[in-house]
Every structure is written in C-alpha cells, then in structure tokens.
Amino acid sequence: MGGVTQADRGAGPVRDPGLQPERTRLAWRRTTLSCTVAAVLGARAVLHDGTSALGVLACALCLLLWLGFLAVAHRRMVMLTAPRPRTMSPRAARAAALCTFALAVCAVVMLL
C-alpha cells in the first residue's frame, strides 16, 4: 500500500534522449552520402560509355531523385536538432522510400 502510483509520478518520467538524436542525424548523413555516391557513379557510367537519349533521361531523373532525397534528409536532420524531436511523418518516410526505390530503378535502366 505504500507503493508509488502513476498519479504520484505526475505525467510520467521526462524522457532523456541522450545521444539517440545525434546517432540518427549521423545515420541520415551517411545515407545521404551513399545516395550521392550512387547518383554520381550512375552519371559517370552513363557518360563514360557514350550518351544515349535513354541514358541521359535516366541520369536527369536520377539527379532529380537525389535532390528530392537530399531535401527530405536535410529536413529530417534539421528537425532532429530540437530538444524533443518529433517522429518522422509518414509522408516524409514515403518520400524517402520512393526516392530510394526510384533511384534503384534508374540505376537498372542506366545499366541496360
């Protein structure tokens, strides 16, 4: 009967995020770097083997997708600087996943 109840604790313990936001921010930076390397290598492959209309189109689409992913990642990294960062919205998560998937499709098209 002498236990502490939820009402005694108030709204609950204050969450100490520790280094988790920093680790997440670094993970987004590594992912952005990987996406950049993939886009540059794809463009290099298209330009090195001779240009075709389909290759140039795939390269341009690859650049647009990279810029889209870069925008989503930058927005998320900025949000993680808050003392209590919000979770990533489903819309932003879908945009990042779509950019990643479409970038892989462009890579396959550039290899053809």
Offer a quick outline of the entry.
The protein has 112 residues and is mainly alpha-helical. The protein contains four helices and no strands. It has helices at 6-9, 20-48, 53-79, 90-111.
Tell me about this structure.
With 112 residues, this protein is mainly α. It has one domain. It is 73% helix and 0% strand. The protein contains four helices and no strands. α2 packs antiparallel against α3, α2 packs parallel to α4 and α3 runs antiparallel to α4. The longest helix is centred in the N-terminal third of the chain and has 29 residues. The protein is elongated, with a radius of gyration of 21 Å. The mean pLDDT is 80.
Short descriptors:
about 110 residues; mainly alpha; about 75% helix; elongated; DUF202 domain-containing protein; transmembrane; membrane; transmembrane helix; DUF202
Strand content: under 5%
| Low-confidence runs | none
Q: Helix- and strand-based class?
A: mainly alpha
Task: Give the overall average pLDDT.
Answer: 80
Q: Please bin the fraction of helical residues.
A: over 70%
For the largest beta-sheet, the strand count, sense and barrel status come to: none
Using the CA coordinates, give the radius of gyration: 21 Å
Overall outline: elongated
Distance between the termini: 73 Å
Order of SSEs, N→C? Answer: HHHH
**Overall domain count:** 1
Number of helices: 4
Give the strand tally: 0
